TrEMBL record:
<keyword id="KW-0677">Repeat</keyword>
<feature type="transmembrane region" description="Helical">
    <location>
        <begin position="329"/>
        <end position="350"/>
    </location>
</feature>
<dbReference type="InterPro" id="IPR014743">
    <property type="entry name" value="Cl-channel_core"/>
</dbReference>
<feature type="transmembrane region" description="Helical">
    <location>
        <begin position="6"/>
        <end position="24"/>
    </location>
</feature>
<keyword id="KW-0129">CBS domain</keyword>
<dbReference type="GO" id="GO:0005247">
    <property type="term" value="F:voltage-gated chloride channel activity"/>
</dbReference>
<keyword id="KW-0472">Membrane</keyword>
<dbReference type="GO" id="GO:0005886">
    <property type="term" value="C:plasma membrane"/>
</dbReference>
<feature type="compositionally biased region" description="Basic and acidic residues">
    <location>
        <begin position="716"/>
        <end position="744"/>
    </location>
</feature>
<dbReference type="GO" id="GO:0034707">
    <property type="term" value="C:chloride channel complex"/>
</dbReference>
<keyword id="KW-0813">Transport</keyword>
<feature type="region of interest" description="Disordered">
    <location>
        <begin position="700"/>
        <end position="744"/>
    </location>
</feature>
<keyword id="KW-0407">Ion channel</keyword>
<dbReference type="InterPro" id="IPR050970">
    <property type="entry name" value="Cl_channel_volt-gated"/>
</dbReference>
<feature type="transmembrane region" description="Helical">
    <location>
        <begin position="219"/>
        <end position="241"/>
    </location>
</feature>
<keyword id="KW-1133">Transmembrane helix</keyword>
<keyword id="KW-0868">Chloride</keyword>
Amino acid sequence: MNNRVSFSLLYTFFHCQLWMYGGLDSNVFLQYLAWVTYPVVLITFSAGFTQILAPQAVGSGIPEMKTILRGVVLKEYLTFKTFVAKVIGLTCALGSGMPLGKEGPFVHIASLCAALLSKFMSLFGGIYENESRNIEMLAAACAVGVGCCFAAPIGGVLFSIEVTSTFFAVRNYWRGFFAATFSAFIFRVLAVWNRDEETITALFKTRFRLDFPFDLQELPAFAVIGIASGFGGALFVYLNRLIVQFIRKQKAINRFLMKKRLLYPALVTLLVSTLTFPPGFGQFMAGKLTQKESLVTLLDNRTWAKQGIAEEFDYIGQSQAWKHPQVNVFVTLVLFIVMKFWMSALATTIPVPCGAFMPVFVIGAAFGRLVGESMAAWFPDGIHTDGTIYPIVPGGYAVVGAAALSGAVTHTVSTAVIVFELTGQISHILPVMIAVILANAVAQSLQPSLYDSIIRIKKLPYLPELGWGHHEYYNIRVEDIMVRDVRYITLNCTYRDLHNVLLTGHLKTLALVESAESMILLGSIERAQLQSLLSLQLGRPRRLEYIKERATAEKKRLSVVSNPSSDDGSHRASQEVRFQVRGHCRSRIDRMESHPFHLCLMGCNLRKIAPQTTERIAEWEEMQLDEQVNFNNCKIDPAPFQLVERTSLHKTHTIFSLLGLDHAYVTSIGRLIGVVSLKELRKAIEGSVTVKGVKVRPPLASFRDSGTSSSENEATELHKLWDRHKSMSLPREHTPSESDEKSQ
């Protein structure tokens, strides 16, 4: 439903621009103002509205969804405000006519709908309160976003799996297909109800011949399209990242743009609109056509070129935009590809809700059309097979190019299925698959996908892919990359030790070991649980209890030392002492609530407190801090995930990806020797790719002690540890708990 409404608004917006442009044909300058002002206003409004309401709505949405589906919580990313900002901002951005896409934002919008529906249903209780169920809903929503964007439910499910999941739960497979099929059905039914279509059909229906769609001699040309698209996709990702990094590294420009947030999108829109102005440079690159109109003409199965002579072109309908009296179609297509390439890479850096799939798809179709028209010019009479002449179909080359380039940029193979559903024909299934696979092979060896590149730019906590062809992943072990200085607490530690550990770091989970000498790992405790322990020991109830005891003791002391005639005086003295103690403690309690771990550093106004009372409170604090911690009321995870020191980097990456871990302890025969988090794993993977920043295996790694410790010694050691812990009762959890966030 949202997709249909957005398309209607886009249609209205763009035709309003064409109406303003066409009504001023008597004055070129006024035409230019109308052509440029309209997109600048829409982009500026989109950027401003999104920045004010919900900055999380900026960009594609797929990189963030990739991070969320891994189990990382991104604040304010799946809220109603973000939904409103995304829908309105995306509508204005696409209505401006800029080379921006909508597939990524639709994935985000569908995920927002799923999250909001789950939140609403959780009010009634049931399974929707479960976190795992919400992840399943979001996985299905990602398929819905792609499916309703192109009316391609099968390709949508496959594409969402490829770009958002490292490991996909098969039980979510039918849910994704069910939701994506209904979304695509409703999208196309609404088109029929609005009388945009006569019946439910493909979005960009083609009419290629089915009896002989291509000849085997054309396969090398399709392979060339795939290889070239692989290089082009890697270049697009590199150029997009280069633009963002250049702006960020130029501190003066960055500070200026941070103050004038709407200036950058306005300037980029002004530049792109000026270059696409139809009477200007836009006449050489079909600047008057929208992305949809450009794609329709590029997929046309009629040949434009005949021996490359412009006068013999057969232009019908919207194809006339590609006609120019001075240059032929090859020059027009080359200019279109080159200009749209860098303009799309630049436009996708604008802080508005937008994606990059559709611009890349159109550029790939233009490149395929260029190759197809070249083949038609080289073989004007077609290819002879058994005496039958079959002319070249340039539209088929456009389909292959669109699938190959979009697949190279996103590192997906499912774009082949998407183009089949988009065009309604699978006649070119073999060349499309060949080109997409070759494009992926080239692109993946050169650059990360566009979504992984954005994740690196935004520094989201996501584990990068290993890639292929890097044998060092199997040679690097956990002990080479782990952090050996582990923050831990012992079973017999004091509250002072607990206080000091919490002050020295910001880890969300701490390891619990038997003692500093043995370092036997007993479990892990969340930071919030340790905060509760410290608050209970030095919190308000304990302090009030101490105040009451001190006041009672002081009252008894005064009643004993005083004579019967001085009852009133002793009562007043007791009240005075009680007032002083309570006033002093109230000040310290209030400070404790705001800084629960700076209890020993809290000060007070000593001018109003008796020196003896202050000393007694300080002594009481010191006594409480020196007591041993009681873990009986603490929720302990008795089995945190552990790795052995010889686990390879490849296996560690697989385990982290499959289980959604963000840290794991490294143990040797039960002893805690280190910890590995996403940070260390990411550095090791990126470092091993660039051959920088990785501590590779030590020089004598090949001589590791296979003989220094025998299995018998290890068994004996384990028996000793078991005998030592037989009589020891570990603290148990009173209620089951799930950790939402863990340490890094």
